[in-house]
Structures are given as structure tokens and as C-alpha cells.
């Protein structure tokens, strides 16, 4: 067999940290359904369990990239992908069950429609008829920076009835199963390791869009994600990361409006959410939001410096829309909070379609 050259190679990169149980349950499907389309690599984030020994015993053909310590989702992938040559990376969570032919439709879409990042449809492995929290049928963002998905808005999960089976441009693609053009990934500096975990893929997609790249979802490919494999949705640490990191990505990337008025309104909304947690008896989640704001203030200077670098890169990097022209396709001009909680619009189809930024 003639080996595939790095310039044409697709690599499915699975980041592992003490994930023996997930590898035993999900790696067999990945190996089976990637054969002939991509090589599989496991990047180990300094695990202390027997996960890598198990991989060596049962899948000796799989390349392992061994990191000395847990660098988080962002840092682990950055360090691991530096050691992997490929044309396309597939960042795949260790708790994702793949399906036959999940790779070719996405690669074809990226090549023919000009996408730098793309995700398949993501459904719930525990309840396969439902879309899954982390990405569902493609990610969007509202005017305040709150994220949502086609097929999943807050805690409402739609059944997958084929209503989102078309290829579409979106604002962000899920890190649970993220196909990435390798050159574009390294051009924008990869994932931001200061995020550690959660929303780092949204930050990455936003930086790509700021340079004119397109981000999409492929309706012809589907995977099933267990979700919550490392942190449950109600975990105080996950709540902390989500609130802190959402502020990080807004400061770094949102260049359409003045920074401080936008940031003030967002901090107020976060405060309302924290009070709601407290009223519901979730004191630990209330404190998680407080800690998130505290640590955001500590890092504000760093993120503001990165904002200046991002603006400079936007002005200097030519793209097909023109130098300095931002690609905000997938941006929702309304407030998803008002639509969901006050207008009771709980599904993507119920949202105001005219409020989405036009596709490029």
C-alpha cells in the first residue's frame, strides 16, 4: 500500500485523559468507520489510568502522542496536533460513537463549498432520536454572546426528523466532532489554552470567521455523543468555565460594537443568572458565576491585548470579502433569552429567520 502523504492525510485525533471506559466503549466504532478514510491517533493528556496500555494491547496500529501532564482540552490538542502532519484534523471526543461513512461527506463539503471548519450532525448516544447538547445541528450566537444550536436551545432538545439535513453555514461548530483544515488551524494559532475547556472551539471558529473563513455543518454525516463524560452539565466547574470563557471570547473577538457597553450589559445578564441559581437553591452554581467573574477580571488585561492582536490580524489578513471585512454568518441579531424565556420560542424553527446575519 502506498502511504498517504501528509498534504492529503486526514487524521482523527482523540484527546484522552483517564478515559479507559470511554475508549473501550467508543474507540472500536471510530477505528471501524475511519478505515480507508483517515488515520486514528490518540493524544493522551497525562493519564494515570490504564487507557494507553489498553490501546497498545488491543489497537497497536494506532499512533499515540503522549503528553506529560493534563493540559486541558485546548492545550492538549494544541500540543498533540503540533506532532501530527495532516491536511485535515478531526477533533473527536473520546465519548463519540461514529457511523459508517461519517468522514467522506464532510471532507467533500469542505473541499467543494470552501469550509475551513465543519461538524457532522450530533445526536445523543443515550437517546439517539434526540439532538445532543454539544453542537446538535450547528451552532449560533446571539447579540449578547449567548450560544445555542439548531436542534437544541438551552434545555430543549429536538428529535432528529431530518429537518436540518441540509449543508449549512453556521457561526460555530462543535468541538465534540470538529473537522478542521490543518493550515487554517495553525494560521490562527490553534485553540486558546487559557480557556482550558469549554467554548474554546467557539473562540476558534470566531477567529476563523474574523479572517473570512467559513464554518459549517454537514447534513449528510452523523455521530452520537454521550456528553458529560468529564463534567456533568450541572457541574459547578463547568458552569464556572462556561461563564468565564464566554466573557473571554467576547472580549477577544466581538469587534462590531464598542467593548465596554457590550461587556457591561453582559455582566448584568450574568448577574441575573447567578441570582436565579441562588433562588433555585443552587448556591454552588451561584458561587461558580462569582468566581468566573473574579477570574475574568484577573485576565481582562490579557484578553484585551489579544483583542488588539485580533483586530490587527483582521486588518492585515486579506480574505475573499475584503481586508477587514468580518464574516458574521450565523449571528442572531435578537436576544435568545427574550425569545426563549418570554416569547416561548423553544425550537430553532420558531426563531425569527430574518434576524440571522445573511450567509456568505
Account of the protein in words:
By secondary structure, this protein is an alpha/beta fold. It folds into 2 domains: 216 residues, Spore Coat Polysaccharide Biosynthesis Protein SpsA, Chain A; 89 residues, no CATH class. 39% of the residues lie in helices and 18% in strands. The strands form 3 sheets. Strands 1, 2, 3, 4, 5, 6, 11, 12 and 13 form a 9-stranded mixed sheet that branches. A 3-stranded mixed sheet has the order 8-7-14, with no helix packed on it. The protein has a two-stranded antiparallel sheet with strand order 9-10. A hairpin with a 4-residue loop joins strand 7 and strand 8. Helix 1 packs parallel to helix 2, helix 7 runs antiparallel to helix 8 and helix 8 packs antiparallel against helix 9. The protein is globular, with a radius of gyration of 20 Å. It starts with 9 loop residues before the first strand and ends in an 18-residue tail after the last helix. The mean pLDDT is 93.
Sum this structure up briefly:
With 360 residues, the chain is of the alpha/beta class. 39% of the residues lie in helices and 18% in strands. The protein is built from 10 helices and 14 strands.
